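re: ur msg from earlier - yeah i can do the 3-methyl-2-oxobutanoic acid complex, just paste it... oh wait u already did. ok heres what im feeding in:
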Amino acid sequence: MSGRNLVIFDTTLRDGEQSPGASMTGEEKLRIAKALERLGVDVIEAGFAAASPGDFAAIQQIANTIKKSTICSLSRALDKDIERAAEAIKNAARPRIHTFIATSPIHMQHKLRMEPDQVVEQAIAAVKKARSLVDDVEFSCEDAGRSDIDFLCRIIEKTIDAGARTINIPDTVGYAIPEEFADRIRTLIERIPNADKAIFSVHCHNDLGLAVANSLAAVKAGAGQVECTINGLGERAGNASLEEIVMATRTRKDFLDVTCGIDTTQIVPTSKLVSSITGFQVQRNKAIVGANAFAHESGIHQDGMLKNRETYEIMRAEDVGWTTNRLTLGKLSGRNAFNARLNELGVHLEQEALNEAFVRFKTLADKKTEIFDEDLIALVNDSVAAADTYKFDALECHSVPGHKPHAVIHFSVDGCESTGEADGSGPVDATFKAIESVVESGAHLLLYSVNAVTEGTDSQGEVSVRLEHSGHIVNGSGADTDIVVASAKAYINALNLLSGTRERRHPQV
Ligand code: KIV
Ligand code: ZN
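and the outut:
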């Protein structure tokens, strides 16, 4: 296939995880990393190793497991961060250190409180340090979208000389406009004398809804790497969405003239996995991965489609993996078939966890005759970790006309059985109050949402509950064919995550 190669750098596990409430456990990160490898991404930014011991361990596990994609850790331009990053990725088949420092006047003056010359010196030292530990080093000029172009030329030339192989130009605050951003990339590539020694990359945030447009404009202007996330997850309004970038380059190859190694049929399964792990639901009309992305409602469209599907369809649903959510298992399926399908979905469970999941699968199969891939993913996400403080047991809920709904919840707290009960304005409200009558967590509910995992009224409801306590935000999830039970499980899951929250450094603060 002709066209320049476009490197796809996925930062779902790092920038995506910086979305408030999107934090993932190490095991969840590994599952997503495996899905990203199947998808064929070139570089997986697995996290920020210096953030916390948990982040370090997750990167290390991903580096030990993933063979095809490059595994990258972010690090500030500080020796201790860079050493931590190198240690975390040391067993990766293809390790990369991504180091960064802010280059805009506002960031240098107010955040770093450093003179531009000091920033250049620190950037050079960081790249040299990283190159002493790994061959593949990426350097980012944070807030490059608002940085002085002459200063960018100076710092980039020096960091390429110091050994950076990829130079990333982030639009950190999502301020750029496509034409202007493309001009910036083109100017840098033209003016920097050693620009041919590095790949120019872009990393666009979506504050003005322009992240994908800015990234594609930059690709047209010569960028050879795009940093993006599944479902556009990321800080604030998110990052450029991988699925939109990939499908735009594929559908408009005539214009963009680049190719990438993504297996597009893995896009929808990966999107669903990320959404169900993080609890960040995909809006129905989201391009490529939204439930309505390929639905043609109007009679005129349907008529056109029947005559020739290209009248209204520029991509085929099956090319992005919409058909893979096929009916997979039923009541009579055995443990081997169950495990084999989980493996195909990238889920590998230890014997004990598999036994436990199989029991829950049989319970689900009793309630629901057709079990789809989405059901299996929800079922696995719904598992209870042995170390969890709170474990759901049973729920009784009564809603009788003329009386306030009443809930009685049975759950265990550190192995001891507890029962809570409360009235509420509805069954879910009563259930949450019943849990809190025992736990008294002091947490604030920031978000409650229910999503049908599959079609039909026998679908499992997947509930997301976002709780905040002392500045920590967590997203709990739970699934069940009874949405009040799913809600109770999600609330309990969020409480478990809150009780396990740890101090974690943010790379950009
Ligand atoms: O948005 C940003 O500038 C970043 C950098 C750390 C690459 O995420
Ligand atoms: Zn970012």
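cool cool. The two ends are 43 Å apart (CA to CA). ping me if u need the other ligands too
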